[in-house]
Write a structure and sequence with these properties.
Blueprint (H helix, E strand, L loop, with lengths): L8 E6 L7 H14 L4 E6 L1 H4 L6 H17 L8 E4 L5 H10 L4 H5 L2 H7 L8 H15 L5 E3 L5 H18 L8 E3 L34 H10 L18 H14 L3 H8 L4 H27 L2 H30 L5
Parallel strand pairs: 1-2, 2-3, 4-5
Helix pairs in contact: 3-12, 4-7, 4-13, 7-8, 9-12, 10-11, 10-12
The structure holds adenosine monophosphate and tryptophan.
């Protein structure tokens, strides 16, 4: 049986490791919530991806609930979108194996995220970390999803997803998989660390001061913004004046994104201002925008049974979509289904 390629189906994933931060929120999750009004959306806690690096089982389970709660708190409505964790839909792992046999070593060797995560001791990295992008391609293609909203850092993985889909289609002479389109937009597709404008805001960075977590209260947000690194110049009147000023660019980008306005407007508004005044305005805006999310997270935290039920139902709905597609793929590859 051939499952038709949907017109527009959104899929995206997030690793359930640690807390979500402002980069996750502005670069991805806020967009996920906005897309669900118009599109069919599937959002996944990628726990199979989370075990590609050393991890603790108790923490993984807790983070899976915590990250799912953040998605709901950010406005993702499980009555509308599918929200689930990857390990509970076995078709992801099944298709990932098939894609491991389609992806070429040369393609995987080019992946910058592997190089960053493996570090210097590459021989000691897990094989799973190396083939991570094939699993990511499977996550998307097991639903024949057409659009994937992510931050800038995932662009290369989505290019590989297209290569795998195209290669599968041409190897077997079929039109089974779509060529996925990345959705990377907004003024904060790459939010940088508050301590260093040249490195990405990340869950794995040691210093808590480098990121604003979705769980931070108003005082913590204020302290982190006050301590954020800046330069000595006043703020420029237009975005060209941000060139060579990574910290200023980052903070103004965060403000613009929280404000849902272009960076040019933010520059115009703060032209000539000192960082001290700007930081006060940024704190006020960040607290105002994040407080509802944090409040809702606290409420959901007190009700883990609800989150578990959302994930259980989400996995059921996801599996129902994936099953006919994995069967189609098995037929194409030539697996006997007696
Ligand atoms: P991760 O936490 O790595 O699983 O990422 C989840 C989503 O957040 C992905 O779509 C990433 O591209 C996005 N993301 C992660 N860090 C950042 C950042 N610093 N700026 C913008 N987007 C980000
Ligand atoms: N690799 C993504 C990240 O680290 C998470 C992810 C896994 C994903 N599978 C995906 C994102 C499928 C989009 C689509 O952020």
């Amino acid at each position: 049986m051939t499952v038709p390629i949907p017109n527009q189906r959104i899929f995206s994933g997030v690793q359930p490791t640690g807390n979500l931060h402002l980069g996750n929120y502005l670069g991805a999750i806020r967009n996920w919530a906005r897309l669900q009004d118009e599109y069919e959306c599937i959002y996944c806690m990628v726990d199979l991806h989370a075990i590609t690096m050393p991890q603790d089982p108790v923490e993984l389970r807790a983070s899976t609930r915590e990250v799912a709660a953040s998605l709901l708190a950010a406005g993702i409505d499980p009555a509308d979108s599918i929200v689930f964790n990857q390990s509970q839909v076995p078709a992801h792992a099944e298709l990932a194996w098939i894609f491991n046999c389609v992806a070429r070593l040369g393609w995987l060797n080019r992946m910058t995220q592997f190089k960053e995560k493996a570090g210097k001791d590459r021989d000691n990295a897990s094989a799973g970390l190396y083939t991570y992008p094939a699993l990511m391609a499977a996550d998307i293609m097991v639903y024949k999803a057409t659009h994937v909203p992510v931050g800038e850092d995932q662009k290369q993985h989505l290019e590989l997803t297209r290569d795998v889909a195209q290669s599968f289609n041409s190897q077997f002479g079929v039109e089974c998989f779509p060529l996925v389109e990345p959705l990377i937009y907004g003024e904060a597709t790459r939010v940088m660390s508050l301590r260093d404008g040249n490195s990405k805001m990340s869950k794995s960075e040691k210093s808590e001061m480098s990121r604003i977590n979705l769980t931070d209260d108003a005082d913590t947000i204020a302290r982190k913004i006050r301590k954020a690194r800046t330069d000595a110049e006043p703020l420029p009147g237009d975005p060209e004046g941000l060139e060579g000023r990574p910290e200023a660019l980052n903070l103004l980008g965060i403000y613009a994104s929280l404000d849902d306005a272009p960076v040019a407007d933010t520059c115009q508004h703060f032209a000539g201002a000192q960082f001290s005044a700007f930081k006060e305005a940024l704190t006020e805006l960040a607290v105002a925008k994040l407080a509802p999310v944090t409040g809702e997270m606290n409420r959901l935290r007190a009700d883990p049974g609800h989150v578990d039920e959302v994930l259980r139902q989400g996995a059921e709905r996801a599996a129902a979509l994936a099953e006919p597609i994995i069967r189609e793929v098995q037929d194409i590859v030539g697996f006997l289904r007696p």
